[in-house]
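Exercise 3.2. Students should predict the tertiary structure of the chain below and write it as structure tokens, then compare their answer with the key that follows.

Predict this chain's 3D structure.
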Amino acid sequence: MENFIELNEENITSEHICCAISDKKCAESYQAKKDWLKGEFKNNYTFRKLDERAKVFIEYGPAESAWVPITANNYLNINCFWVSGKYKKSGYGKVLLKSAIDQAKNQNKAGLVTVVGTKKYHFMSDTKWLLKQGFVEVDRTSSGFSLLVLKFSENEEDPFFNPSVKNGECSDKEGIVIYYSNRCPFAEFHAQNSITETAHNRNLPLKVIKIETMKEAQNAPSPATIFSLFLDGQFVTTDISVCMDSRFDKVVEKAKKH
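Answer key:
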């Protein structure tokens, strides 16, 4: 595809992965994301991006091996899908989506599936835009997540969220609990560093759980396996900036209002 390239095991060392390009403090977690991608390439995972130093890309792979708690047999699952800054309204989003649709059809898949927020959530695709492209909601959780699907035939089975996410709670009921994975180059730095000071300054118990395997991800208590913060057992936000001392109270207060 003109102006777009796909990452693979050969070129990922020299190519950037769009996010956190110049954020030096996240250098280790940036490399961790690349290492995660190397593992997923073995599961027919696709990372397609604009051949520019820009945040214009889409990631997807077989839903059976997706790091999200869904059941979607014979679908491709879209993970990160981002067109930002000056590249918005350029048509790149539609081009990237079409490439995923074409690949799914070539592989005789039932369609595409993706997790979004019923309202705008950080590090998740634009729900309204996807609905305009023909996606429909087939499941949702009490914590504000929606499962969207684009079927190629009405006869296909509806995907659904796994039971672990249905009530919007985690098993630990005291203080701050964070679940995160290396799917995002920002997550590890903030989950392992920033949140420690934040919790200490508020005398809040803290538990940080790193999702290290596909099985753990598919049984996680939140569909946002990139990053999710729970407070006293209840899901609060996917916004990684909540880890920072200057942002925690504002983000939590805003989340509770919604």
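Discussion points: The first helix runs from residue 27 to 41. The two ends are 41 Å apart (CA to CA).
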